Amino acid sequence: MSTCDILNSTWTTPESILNGWTEEKDVDDNVSNFAKQIRRAVERDQKQTFSKFDAIRFRKQIVNGWNYWVKVCIEEENSRCLHIKFWLAMGIDAKPVLISVIPNKTKNDPINV
């Protein structure tokens, strides 16, 4: 098997089509940790501190690293959420970089990309 065959079989699974976004799904431990790492940047961007910041759903895209859209619950009582977009470089020590925040979302709002 050639290197091209290996790369093609690795990168063309439904979840990793280059430039395509995955379907929305529940967060895993990795995405939850990325959201925790970027929380302070989101709070600075929104000029407020959140008492709750729980990542619940996400979508991702492979591009020179990974783009993530993550639905973050910030208020349980009103189902208030944010949609945050961040980029994560490839590499073991990569840290998420905030790209965008969409406020005024609810738990029922889909993550639209």
Automatic annotation (TrEMBL):
One of its GO terms (molecular function) is cysteine-type endopeptidase inhibitor activity. GO terms for cellular component: cytosol. Keywords: Cytoplasm, Protease inhibitor, Thiol protease inhibitor. InterPro entries: Cystatin_dom, Cystatin_sf, Prot_inh_stefin. Pfam families: Cystatin. Residues 41-80 form the Cystatin domain. It is found in: Cytoplasm. Gene3D superfamilies: 3.10.450.10. Belongs to the cystatin family. This is Cystatin domain-containing protein. The gene is 106057690.
